[in-house]
């Protein structure tokens, strides 16, 4: 399959040449064509300039049998080169995966669980949930293709807005909306994490600031659904509370809150989610369960040769989680 970027309009030749230069500087192999020159069989990608004069500069991508008009607002070569998706830029974070942005999409390693995750994302989108990316299958390299969600992802040490009460409330509302949107979603796997009973919802599995997109200082979407799996609502709620309150004795670079302040913020979060009293009482035990399960997963994956999890262990992440699990257990009655 030969992919072609077709640039038309006044000055198309000059724009195409500049786009070609930018692609070449980024290491993207391609041919530069003008007018009716034939495609270069030595390259699967080409930039073609329409030499007919007139009109504003437009760009159309002919890729995989699809014709896609690129939403260029300026006709600027740098904007067009970026919109092609041919230039890949590593994204901050990524955790245990290598994640890149390619134009308006994100490319991530796929796994046996990817089809189930893509069904989930299609299901919640059809249910009206807008706080997650849409999936677009796999690319030629076998990576999953997802929407790039505009905004900023919070990474440790977190920015101040990630600790605001407004953020805490909005995460609670967003998580509840996501859980409700999973109603009726097929539970068939395989999933990265095993399904758990009661399978009330499809849990995200890793609701945390580093998997949350912010705009104007507030959460608007969750990303990285690799760890999604059927399970109880409380499992997701407990882990999200651990990360966003946070329910920590050591912290991740932020000031450690008093138990009284942790309890106040936990109430805000649970109120925003709409968690009933019985589940609030069970939340500390679920936090402990989730943190111990996380440490078990890290150790199992590291023993299997996963370099990212081995690094987490060498950096002492497991010590943080086990210490925090003890902290939440010790102060359970005060927190809820």
Automatic annotation (TrEMBL):
Residues 193-245 form the Aminoglycoside phosphotransferase domain. It comes from the Bacteria. Gene3D superfamilies: 3.90.1200.10. InterPro entries: Aminoglycoside_PTrfase, Kinase-like_dom_sf. This is Aminoglycoside phosphotransferase domain-containing protein. It comes from Nonomuraea dietziae. The lineage of its organism: Bacteria, Bacillati, Actinomycetota, Actinomycetes, Streptosporangiales.
């Amino acid at each position: 399959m030969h992919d072609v970027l077709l640039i038309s309009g006044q000055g198309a030749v000059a724009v195409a040449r500049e786009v070609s230069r930018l692609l070449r500087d980024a290491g993207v192999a391609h041919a530069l064509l003008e007018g009716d020159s034939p495609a270069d069989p030595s390259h699967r990608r080409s930039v073609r300039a329409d030499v007919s004069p007139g009109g504003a500069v437009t760009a159309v991508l002919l890729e995989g049998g699809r014709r896609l008009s690129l939403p260029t607002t300026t006709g600027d070569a740098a904007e067009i080169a970026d919109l092609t998706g041919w230039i890949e830029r590593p994204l901050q974070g990524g955790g245990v995966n290598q994640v890149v942005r390619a134009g308006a999409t994100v490319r991530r390693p796929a796994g046996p669980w990817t089809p189930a995750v893509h069904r989930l994302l299609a299901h919640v989108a059809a249910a009206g949930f807008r706080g997650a990316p849409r999936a677009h299958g796999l690319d030629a390299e076998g990576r999953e293709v997802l929407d790039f969600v505009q905004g900023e992802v919070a990474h440790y040490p977190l920015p101040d807005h990630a600790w605001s009460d407004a953020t805490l409330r909005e995460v609670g509302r967003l998580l509840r909306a996501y859980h409700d949107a999973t109603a009726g979603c097929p539970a068939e796997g395989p999933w990265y994490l095993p399904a758990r009973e009661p399978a009330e919802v499809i849990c995200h599995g890793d609701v945390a600031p580093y998997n949350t997109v912010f705009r104007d200082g507030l959460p608007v979407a969750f990303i990285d659904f690799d760890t999604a799996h059927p399970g109880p609502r409380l499992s997701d709620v407990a882990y999200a509370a651990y990360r966003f309150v946070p329910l920590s004795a050591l912290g991740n670079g932020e000031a450690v809150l008093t138990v009284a302040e942790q309890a106040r913020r936990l109430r805000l979060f649970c109120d925003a989610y709409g968690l009933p009293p019985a589940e609030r009482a069970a939340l500390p035990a679920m936090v402990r369960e989730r943190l111990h399960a996380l440490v078990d997963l890290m150790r199992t994956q590291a023993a299997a040769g996963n370099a990212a999890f081995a690094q987490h262990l060498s950096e002492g992440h497991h010590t943080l989680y086990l210490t925090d699990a003890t902290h939440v257990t010790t102060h359970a009655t005060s927190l809820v």
